[in-house]
Specification:
The structure is a homodimer.
Chain A (H helix, E strand, L loop, with lengths): L9 H6 L4 H9 L5 E2 L12 H15 L13 H12 L10 E4 L1 H13 L5 E6 L3 H8 L4 E8 L2 E2 L4 H5 L5 E4 L13 H14 L3 E4 L15 H11 L16 E6 L11 E4 L2 H15 L4 H11 L3 H27 L5 E2 L7 E5 L6 H10 L2 E2 L1 E2 L12 E5 L5 H19 L5
Parallel strand pairs in A: 1-12, 3-4, 3-6, 6-7, 7-8
Antiparallel strand pairs in A: 2-9, 4-5, 8-9, 10-11, 11-14, 13-14
Chain lengths: ~425, ~425
């Protein structure tokens, strides 16, 4: 018998990227390991009782409608809630600008399916979100990258990269995953200018924007883009949603504010783009679970989510502070890290010579885990950095885990000639 | 200003196929229309109270775990339940052979993403399931087709089509959507033989197999394929799940037995194929909602689903009988239809000269709706047929709707010269 037919497809899934996230999520399940690896929210903050009450209310009020097929666009009251929520961040949208997705991972997949042809170049930050790289590798995208620093994307290096002719740019402006850094206001303006000049659309991924626990909120790129369009005095007759003629597709999620196990995210875009997205999503899963959407709405409504997000911010601020203080205490000289003003992650840079994957092996022996930085580089070539999550572990675990990690880093750094 | 960048993508979503399903689902919402168009289960059978109790139990027993990220493969107890359920149909699987998907539409999308390169030929039944055509058009598949008759796929015409070199065959053996016909036992054996000879894998889509309300259950293709492999005495050392070395990927769903609004389906395949599927799904939505999977398990377990399916069969049998009797009474000579032994649909064939899309316009004026047959043909060229759903409407609605439709058909057929 010849090689089984399905062996031929191994190469394709390899191209989709390693199963690094999955393997790491498995690691985090080992109870003896203090894991800063996953991107998990703090589960003790999940409003479990509110979900129980909401599930009952949904089934009593809506009965079989909560369990029947529904429209691809998503549950209307949930889209209205998102519109109201977006409005608080200056994003003027209507329900026609909003599509519910099965988590923001589906939004990434959907955008890839709609926009990417094999061999297309996608411009990302360096490092960037692993899930986006994985989603788009499946469409045979190639990546070109621009580095980040403490003020986010190095916009001054953008034009050179744009000359490669990318299909779109992918940017996480707030508390970037994995870097933890935030794109400054000046760079946001410059980025919008350049994107408009080159006619290259921006995918603005904002899963953490609401989780700012320090400093001033900065306007989303989608808002600045719309301001720019308005400033040019385009003709907005018959265009009630003028904000959505622009160059930016915005996306976010309930995963970090309500619960990731729901798998609920959304895309905000010009209505015509949403129509294409709806047709694309229809072929992907028909629609996101009606029951889940109704339950999420029932939990989030009447200001509950807004209040709940305040609580999350307080807890995550405390955990970040504990982690930063522990790092200052335990990490050896020569190690640098970012100081995020929100979100779930910070980024550690080791001396150039070190490979964080090797450090991870040592760390696991010391019962502590993180994600090696190479995973977040499309070319995998930068190896001396890693990501730490500060949202999931308890304060005392953070202190203990960082102390262990400090010991590991002392072991690998101190023997080196200075 | 030049054309907005996103206008360039209109062509791509057009290639994905029309939004026919969506437009039709919208039609069904007009309360004055008796719709046989959608593929909706009977909502009054949804176990709403069981879902309420299950949601509470899940949140009380599992707490935040029900709301946290989980593994891509799916909730283990649900996969075990599926294994047990598959076993009753002769499919010997282990949990390593099962992947939970966000409805079987996602399984179709996933299979397309894994297997289809632009221009690949996919062999389908003629007519075939619209959702599959839509999912695979997005990957730029081309279709070659083999007609069905009352015994399902015309296997005698298969070899000619296989000479075109299709990537895989897509077959719905039980109560096919839209035809309502079932592939006979003899043809199943012949199909497996030919598939094996040509080395062309089969995607066996079986959403309705459990809903047989008449006649004998027939073995799934995946079982016959495994029997054939076993008969050849392959070396099964170190291969505990010998059934899954074969040529068939099997897929099914909870949409027609539990509730479609959950968006829960599954793929059964060789473990190595499932591993590729898992990596693919990871980039698509990370995983299907943990909460939904737990709730579905909690409802389905301890034999509840098995008992519930018996009830569905009884109701659908009655509705089919009422529809068939009404058709015999009201439809004019020259109209033929299939007599399904299960499932949700039957298929009506008009005299060759008639176009069912034109008939639909007349039907809507008479406040009754169906899906024109052309939708289900990849080339759209066969126009004298349409699909009727008998699961969703109440008995009295079925009688009234078929009477109205009979009137419409008399109007269009009688004026024609005989």
């Amino acid at each position: 018998m010849s090689t089984p037919w399905h062996h031929r497809y191994a190469q394709r899934t390899q191209r989709m990227g390693s199963s690094m996230i999955r393997e790491l999520l498995k690691l985090t399940e080992r109870p003896d390991i203090i894991s800063f690896a996953g991107g998990l929210p703090a589960p003790e903050l999940f409003p479990v009782e509110a979900f129980e009450a909401a599930s009952s209310r949904v089934l009593r009020q809506h009965g079989s409608k909560a369990l029947q097929y529904s429209t691809t666009e998503g549950y209307l009251p949930l889209r209205e809630l998102i519109v109201e929520k977006m409005g608080r961040y200056g994003i003027e949208a209507s329900v026609d600008n909003v599509l519910i997705t099965s988590g923001s991972q589906q939004a990434l997949d959907l955008i890839g399916k709609l926009l990417i042809n094999p061999g297309d170049l996608i411009l990302t930050e360096r490092p960037s979100y692993l899930g986006a790289l994985q989603a788009w590798r499946a469409y045979q995208a190639e990546f070109s990258t621009v580095p980040i620093d403490d003020d986010g994307l190095r916009v001054d290096m953008l034009e050179e990269a744009l000359c490669g002719g990318p299909k779109f740019m992918y940017v996480l402006p707030n508390f970037q995953n994995p870097g933890g850094v935030t794109l400054s206001y000046e760079r946001r303006l410059a980025l919008i200018d350049i994107a408009d000049r080159y006619g290259v659309p921006i995918i603005e991924d904002d899963p953490y924007g609401e989780l700012r626990f320090e400093g001033e909120h900065l306007p989303p790129l989608v808002v600045l883009d719309a301001d720019k369009l308005n400033g040019r005095q385009y003709n907005f007759q018959n265009e009630p949603h003028s904000y959505f003629k622009g160059n930016v597709i915005y996306m976010s999620t309930f995963s970090k504010t309500l619960a990731p196990g729901l798998r609920l995210g959304w895309i905000v875009a010009p209505a015509s783009v949403i129509q294409h997205c709806v047709m694309t999503k229809q072929g992907m899963d028909l629609h996101t679970s009606s029951f889940i959407q109704m339950v999420a709405y029932e939990v989030a409504k009447d200001g509950f989510l807004t209040e709940h997000v305040r609580q999350i911010r307080d807890v995550y601020r405390e955990r970040r502070d504990i982690m930063l203080a522990a790092m200052s205490e335990h990490f050896p000289p020569g190690v640098r890290w970012t100081r995020p003003e929100g979100g779930l992650f910070l980024w550690v840079t080791l001396p150039d010579e070190l490979d964080s994957t090797a450090v991870l092996e040592a760390a696991i022996n010391h019962k502590v885990a993180f994600v090696p930085g190479a995973t977040f580089y499309p070319d995998g070539n930068t190896r001396n950095s890693f990501r730490l999550n500060f949202s999931n572990a308890q304060p005392e675990q953070i202190q203990e885990g960082i102390a262990r990690l400090g010991q590991v880093l002392h072991n690998v750094i101190e023997p080196m000639p200075v």
